[in-house]
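Here is an idea for our session: we take a single protein and study its fold together. Start from the sequence, derive the backbone structure tokens from it, and show both lines together. Once you have written the record down, we can walk along the chain together:
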Amino acid sequence: MEHIVMGVDIGGSHITAELIDLQKKQEIEETLVRTKLDSHAAAEDIIENWAKTIEQSMEGYPIKPKKISIAMPGPMDYKNGICKIKDQDKYPALYNKNIKEMLARRLNYDVSAVNFMNDAACFLKGELFIGSLSGFDEAIGLTLGTGLGTAHTTNGAAFDSDLWKMPFQKGIAEDYISTRWFVKRYFELSGIQIADIKDLVDHHQDSPHFKTVFAEFSENLAKFIHKFIRKKMPLAAVIGGNIVKAEAFFLEDTRRHLAKLMGYSFPLKRSELGEKAALLGAGTSF
């Protein structure tokens, strides 16, 4: 049963695991398990929580998968499985540790059966597999949330574009395209400290600064996507991540700004798969 694989998506505060049937191009839904994580825990505790979630997912199906493929944020030495996340307020205990070997040993799997991939690349791969980019082969993907994830395709394979640190405006791209920017900019305009985008949408829509902050964001996002397109020459783009939940306030404006910059209407899609995109992308990427 080589076509049954374990797909895993690890974030800063959660882990999701689910078996994927590659032949049918679908999830085995009864195996879906999502668990909250403490990313500041000791390394052994983090690995234990990951392993328990993966094992719980496996219990929902009679056949044990031969391969486990994991979407994980960087920086990381993905080939060798060494975590390089540092000074990002998540997983400090995993820095420079071989988490591939640690997890394989805990799960009693051979190291060669465990694969780590960049989460933004997995997101793009999932959307190409059965999501909003189904039918496209050359594309770019952006995940908009706490940070900025970017990915592109080359000859059908998805790769981390690592453009979060690209020079942009008066800083780097992530300074302007992230939850952090919304929090900072809204405070500059209003003097009010918001927690995140959800807080902004839920409690501040009546503010005169609400439209301003989303108008600025849509323009910044369009300018960044335009630069990204010029670097990679894709046929389409997809955006996902938590910020996309507020699409009603910026997505059409972003498309309009992008069309002006491009000189034509470029296909800018919203993720169809949501959080499951990285999970499915990981499962198809071994």
